[in-house]
Amino acid sequence: MLISRANSGVADDRLPKRETRGVWIATVANIDWPSASGLAAERQKDELIQILDNHQRAGINTVVLQVRPAADAFYAKSKEPWSRFLTGKPGQQPTPFYDPLEFAVEEAHKRGMELHAWFNPYRATFDLIAANTTADHITRRKPEWFFTYGGKKLFNPGIPEVRTYIIGIIMDVVRNYDIDGVHLDDYFYPYPSGNQPIPDGETFRRYANGIANVADWRRNNVNMLIKALSDSIHSTKKYIKFGISPFGIWDNKKDHPRGSQTSGLSGYRQLYADAVTWLEEGWVDYINPQIYFPFGHRTAAYEVLVDWWAQHANGRHFYVGHAAYRARENGAGWQSRSQIPNQVRYARKNGHIQGSIYYSSKHLSNNVVGLRDSLQYNLYRYKALPPQMPWLDNVPPTSPSGLEARPLANQAIILHWQAPPPATDGDEAYGYVIYRFNEGEELDLTKPQNILYISYDNSQLSYADNLIRTGTTYTYVVTALDRLKNESLPSNAQVVSLK
Hints:
This protein is an alpha/beta fold. The protein has 13 helices and 17 strands.
């Protein structure tokens, strides 16, 4: 029996067994969910279930849900007020009451999907309309922590208390919810607004920390937040992944010797986001740059950026951020409706790339230019496990045992197995993978086409296989997963003949 716990490479004609296949579900301004603010709780739940069902069918295994659009909350256990994008009024809870994040985590896990909680760390308001914040909103309680820029209030990253506050907000979610990851987006210091300077001169003078250059100081402020947040997450729950989706260009080679052969806006220079340092210091578990450009783009070609990030991942995971929202454009490069599928194929050829995440959810759900079909029936036609992160945990679970399989009137095959004892690191099984092989097939666990079902429920010790045909012989094995999706060796094999 050939057994493999990880897929070590992917040939052009073979789909990977391990790959992050993610989607961003944006809640700010009701971009993806809920479809409008103020919907009744049951309508919100129904919409989210439909979204998750669509993504499950498309082969998505990772959901990145925006839970804090602007110093507000899509979850109950928060020091910040309920989001107006959820209930229509800032500070108002859903009616009837439920906890959207708790619900989303449970529903994602039911479908074999990870859920990463997406935070916008520094945006404090989406506009300057007073009625859109509560009387006790942090911008009113601590006005000295903020500056106004581009028509929004933003946390001032140079103030130490601000960093402490933001980390505390995120850590409330880490402690109180069964999430799989913490995800930050690209909004650190604000995107430039005309020639408007960032009004943080007084903060620089007060908290310079011996740094003479304001740009270096701003980058250091962001770095301090990232390091402290990473330490806090990993010391609290070792299995929670920490990732960031920066702007697609770190810096341009004409401005920095380590930069890419591009000439667009620079995350390093304009947003003060030094992703290379985060990778080299090991503060992030994955980087997910928003490479929202087509092949051959004049100033920022997709292939140039993908190759550059792959060279700088420093052993951490690199997931490509794809612009599903641009798929129907007709500008240079986007006329080809195969642009994004070809981007996925290109990335798969690089051994330093572990997956893709699409912005945003509704563009997959709505099958814009057939993109969902391309995933569901081609690129993601077989199930995939998330890639392993050995720096967080490299101890596999113990194998399940006692697998039994019996036919039920040729309508289904019922599987039962026994939960394994804890692994050598004390971790119990978190879920299971069920494999099925046809008569004569080698029991090769590296082939994703043999994955029948993935469960993130350690209490599920049975499964009914309804996709069977008479006159056929099947062989089944079950493996155990831990929280970081390390996989055990297989259980005993069971053969069932329906002849």
